């Protein structure tokens, strides 16, 4: 077991921080290495969260830097120069690749590694799964802890007999007959992977995990090299509220940039905050978040403005110079109030925490925003 490395990447967001706390509490015997990709462009609030988390974990979170830098430049600046001032965007996201994914894979090298990722049970997105076969990704917050590549192999029609044999080891009687009926049904247009997987999970999550573990033992997967894997018995499913509760109960707290700050425009009141971790200039920000940055961190906003030159802007249709014109700020705030009101009308729950909906969250890069 000691040959396998366990790692957990901290993005500076709430979900990965909560996962680190959860793993420490629930699996204290797993020797997990924590790391963070240091872009040197994070918000101060993120750095504070990392410090508090280190205190809670009693362990350093290793900062991986994609390049050596001096005090006059940052890792992001280093790569921006190589990309000839071409700012990254959602269509050309070189920043994630260069600043986060490549250094992460270099750090791991060729050692068999299990990487824990904090995608929640209420999210539809898949986490980043390395193409390197020595890295196996596990999602402890989801009902299905396995990554898609593993599920595809386990449920592949060629493996039906193997899977049948594993189930026969653990189940008997009527339940076995019912399970085998599902296992023996080949995948097709009408019976696809997720349907088959969810039906098998309905018969027992831990049971499904045991079968997957047995299967992985016949492969080169890092988990298959373990004698025991404690997450096999994990039947938890954690959603957004659970994440906030973990952070609060541990004393680490919710990242400070989530704190709603009140603003007033033309007699109407609204609140804004930053809803995601990552670089202060991240192009995934909503317009209201740019205004938050302008008003709450004016120096960082000015720095972000300096990157806009030679026709390159952070947003497709608007420059940072334009977005802070008083009339434009007014419009963005008014629109934000209207949008929030519409959203709140749809939300039935009386708990404020449920209202912290992050827009477009499912489209975001998990390396930056979990
Ligand atoms: S936070 Fe945004 S800008 Fe920073 S690396 Fe991630 S996608 Fe790129």
Describe the structure in brief.
The protein is α/β, with parallel strands linked by helices. Helix content is 44%, strand content 9%. It contains 15 helices and seven strands.
Describe the structure.
By secondary structure, the protein is α/β, with parallel strands linked by helices. It folds into three domains: 5-146 and 234-250, 3-Layer(aba) Sandwich (Rossmann fold); 151-225, no CATH class; 256-369, no CATH class. It has 15 helices and seven strands. It has helices spanning 14-26, 44-57, 75-82, 94-108, 148-154, 160-170, 173-184, 193-202, 205-216, 240-250, 287-296, 298-307, 320-323, 326-346, 366-369, and strands at residues 5-9, 32-37, 61-64, 113-116, 135-138, 261-265, 268-272. The strands form two sheets. Strands 3-2-1-4-5 form a five-stranded parallel β-sheet. Strands 6-7 form a two-stranded antiparallel ribbon. Residues 350-357 have low confidence and may be disordered. Bound molecules: iron/sulfur cluster. Iron/sulfur cluster binds next to helix 4.
């Amino acid at each position: 077991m000691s040959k396998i490395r366990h790692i957990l990447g901290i993005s500076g967001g709430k979900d990965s921080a909560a996962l680190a706390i959860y793993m420490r509490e629930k699996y204290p015997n797993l020797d997990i290495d924590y790391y963070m990709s240091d872009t040197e462009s994070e918000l101060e609030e993120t750095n504070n969260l990392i410090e508090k988390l280190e205190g809670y974990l009693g362990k350093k979170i290793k900062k991986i830097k994609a390049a050596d830098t001096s005090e006059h430049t940052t890792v992001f600046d280093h790569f921006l120069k190589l990309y000839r001032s071409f700012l990254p965007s959602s269509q050309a996201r070189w920043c994630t690749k260069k600043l986060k994914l490549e250094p992460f894979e270099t750090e791991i090298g060729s050692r068999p590694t299990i990487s824990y990722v904090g995608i929640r049970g209420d999210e539809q997105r898949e986490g980043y799964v390395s193409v390197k076969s020595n890295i196996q990704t596990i999602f402890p917050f989801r009902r299905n802890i396995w990554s898609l590549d593993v599920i595809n192999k386990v449920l592949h029609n060629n493996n039906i007999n193997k899977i049948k044999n594993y189930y026969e080891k653990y189940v008997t009687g009527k339940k076995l007959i019912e399970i085998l009926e599902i296992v023996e049904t080949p995948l097709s247009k009408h019976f696809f992977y997720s349907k088959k997987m969810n039906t098998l999970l309905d018969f027992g999550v831990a049971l499904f995990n045991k079968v997957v573990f047995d299967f992985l033992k016949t492969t080169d997967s890092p988990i298959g090299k373990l004698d025991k894997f404690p997450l096999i018995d994990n039947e938890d499913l954690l959603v957004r509220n659970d994440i906030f509760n973990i952070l609060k109960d541990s004393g680490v707290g919710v990242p400070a940039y989530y704190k709603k700050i009140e603003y007033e425009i033309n007699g109407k009141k609204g609140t804004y905050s930053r809803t995601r971790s990552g670089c202060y200039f991240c192009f995934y920000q909503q317009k209201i978040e740019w205004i938050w940055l302008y008003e709450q961190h004016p120096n960082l906003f000015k720095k972000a403005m300096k990157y806009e030159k030679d026709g390159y802007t952070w947003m497709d249709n608007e420059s940072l110079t334009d977005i802070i014109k008083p009339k434009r700020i007014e419009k963005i705030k008014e629109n934000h109030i209207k949008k929030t009101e519409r959203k709140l009308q749809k939300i039935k729950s009386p708990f404020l925490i449920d209202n912290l909906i992050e827009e477009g969250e499912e489209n975001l890069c998990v390396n930056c925003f979990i």
